[in-house]
Design goal:
This protein has 242 residues and is an alpha/beta fold. 48% of the residues lie in helices and 23% in strands. Helix 1 packs across helix 8, helix 2 runs antiparallel to helix 7 and helix 7 packs antiparallel against helix 8. Bound molecules: S-adenosylmethionine.
C-alpha cells in the first residue's frame, strides 16, 4: 500500500493510519465504556440493543463480532445463546473485554485479528457483526471481502456505523456537540483530547448510508440494506451471503 489515507482530517500512509488507530484505542481502552455513555448520553446502549434485535442471534450459532473491543455487542449476543468470537486488532481493548466477561460470567472466545486479513477458514461463521468499528479500518473493501469469505452460505452480515446526519437542525446541533464537547469530555475523563478529536473526525468522513450500502453489495452481499437512524447519524447495514 502506498497512497495516503485519512486519519481523521490528516493524510498519512496506510501503515501509519493503522498504527495511529491502534494508539487511539490503546489510550482509551480503560475509559472506553464510560466515555461511550458520556458521549452518547447513554444512547449507544439503545442502538446496540436495536442492532442485536436485527441480528437475531440463535442458540448455538457461531457469530464473529469483529472490532468487538470491550465486548458490549458480543455480550448481548452471547446472552441469547450464540457462540461468540470477539476479534479486534487491539489487545488492550480485548483485555478490558475479557475482564468484563469474567465479571458477568459469560463465556466467549477472544482473538487479536485484523479485519482486513482474518486467520479464520472460509465459511466459518453464521453471522458477522461489526459495530462502530469499520470506519477505523484502513482498507474497508478488504474487510468487507473478508467478512464475506468467513461467512457460511446463508450467513448474515450486520454493521452499525456513524456518519453525518442529513437532518439540518439536528446535524448542526450534533456538529457543535461533537466538535466542542466530545474532545473536552475526552480530556477531562480520559486525559486524551486528541483521540476523541480523531473519533469525531472519522465519523464525519465515513460514507453516507447509501454509499456504504453500495460498498457492501460490491463485496458480494445480496439484499444489501441500510436502516438509517437520526438522519443517518447511526445506520444499521445488513446483507446476506448466498
Ligand atoms: N464494537 C465495540 C463497541 O461497539 O463498543 C468497539 C468499537 S470501537 C469504537 C472500534 C474498535 O475497532 C476498536 O476496538 C479498534 O481496536 C477496532 N479496530 C480498528 N481497526 C481495526 C482493524 N483493522 N481490525 C480489527 N479491529 C479494528
Amino acid at each position: 500500500m502506498s497512497d495516503k489515507v485519512n486519519f481523521g482530517d490528516t493524510l498519512v500512509s496506510p501503515e501509519e493510519k493503522t498504527r495511529r488507530v491502534g494508539a487511539v484505542f490503546s489510550s482509551v481502552a480503560r475509559r472506553y465504556d464510560l466515555m461511550n455513555d458520556l458521549m452518547s448520553g447513554g444512547m449507544h446502549r439503545l442502538w446496540k440493543d436495536r442492532f442485536v434485535n436485527r441480528v437475531k442471534p440463535r442458540t448455538g450459532e457461531a457469530i464473529l463480532d469483529m472490532a468487538g473491543g470491550t465486548g458490549d455487542v458480543a455480550f448481548r449476543m452471547a446472552r441469547r445463546g450464540a457462540q461468540v468470537t470477539v476479534a479486534d486488532i487491539n489487545a488492550d481493548m480485548l483485555a478490558v473485554g475479557e475482564q468484563r466477561a469474567d465479571a458477568r460470567g459469560l463465556d466467549l472466545t477472544w482473538k487479536v485479528e485484523n479485519a482486513e486479513a482474518l486467520t479464520f477458514a472460509d465459511a466459518t461463521f453464521d453471522a458477522y457483526t461489526i459495530v462502530f468499528g469499520i470506519r477505523n479500518v484502513t482498507d474497508i473493501p478488504a474487510a468487507l471481502k473478508e467478512a464475506h469469505r468467513v461467512l457460511k452460505r446463508g450467513g448474515r452480515f450486520y454493521c452499525m456505523e456513524f456518519s453525518s446526519s442529513d437532518w439540518p437542525g439536528f446535524a448542526k446541533l450534533y456538529e457543535s456537540w461533537a466538535d466542542k464537547l466530545i474532545p473536552r469530555i475526552g480530556k477531562a475523563v480520559a486525559d486524551d483530547e486528541q483521540s476523541y478529536r480523531y473519533l469525531v473526525e472519522s465519523i464525519r468522513r465515513f460514507p453516507r448510508p447509501n454509499a456504504f450500502k453500495v460498498m457492501v453489495a460490491h463485496a458480494g452481499f445480496v439484499r444489501a440494506n441500510a436502516e438509517p437512524m437520526l438522519g443517518g447519524l447511526v445506520t444499521i447495514h445488513s446483507g446476506w451471503k448466498i
